Amino acid sequence: MDLLVDHLTRARASGAVFARTVTRPPWGLRLGGSMQLAVHAVAQGRGWIWFDDAMQSPMQLAPGDVVLVRGGRDHYIGHEPGATCAEPDDFRARHGADQLAGDPQATIFLCGAYRFSGDIGSGLLNALPQVMPLTPPIGDPLRDVVGLLSRELAAIEPGQNTVLDRLLDVLLVLAIRTSFRQSPMAPRWYRAAANPRLQGALQAMHEKAGYPWSVPELADISGLSRASFARAFGEALGQTPMQYLTEWRMALARDYLRSGEKELAEIADLIGYGSPYAFAAAFRRHHGQPPGAWRQQEIARAGNAETGLDSHPG
Fold this sequence. Notes:
The protein is an alpha+beta fold.
């Protein structure tokens, strides 16, 4: 099992294309910080991306460039820094036509977004920088995907939604992989998964979270002595193998509980606890309350967020 794919799958990461825009100056678009992860790519011409924060310098986007922006702050994209920016609906109404597609002076850019679910999705997002500019060289698969997305969006064709979904999946994986490869802040599990001494054990824990793993068994998978394995694991991940396994099981449990699709007995079995009572005791140790109460609290919180109650004090 590929750990990055496992995280993306469990986070239920999904993409939604906003638009392929063909335009000439002046133009500008404001995008709200409520989007969990936005993606911008330029296929032709130039553009700029900037924030209200003066500490973040505007960044120019050239053909083939890709920028991922994590949610939290509004951001802007336009023909020049500080350009007047429209809201998405107004922007689409003004720049939705493709009459300029053959104009060499026009800018063609793509805007999209990704949604993530649960604690595993939040953990993956939090491992990304606030802004992730990527300039893939010619011949890089990431650059090729941007070109394919632009061409696919140029005209409506049968099966287009399926093609776009797959291309967005590829774009996300390539962008995150590139970011983690370049960033010293990449998650420890990502770096450790590339370590041949630890890769097998990590994959085993993710693939069979419900199995009663022991350190000797995991060490055997890794082809190391128990002491060597425990030392290598601790150095790479900053915790013992059993601590890592427990944290992963609890992350899975929280997402299962939040979805409401499984009973406590099912969750206990899936994550390696012999009974609902053993699972409840372990969950209480980690979260200070039993899983049933935690689930009800999360359901209430989600309901409040939907009705806007979370925005009121108290």
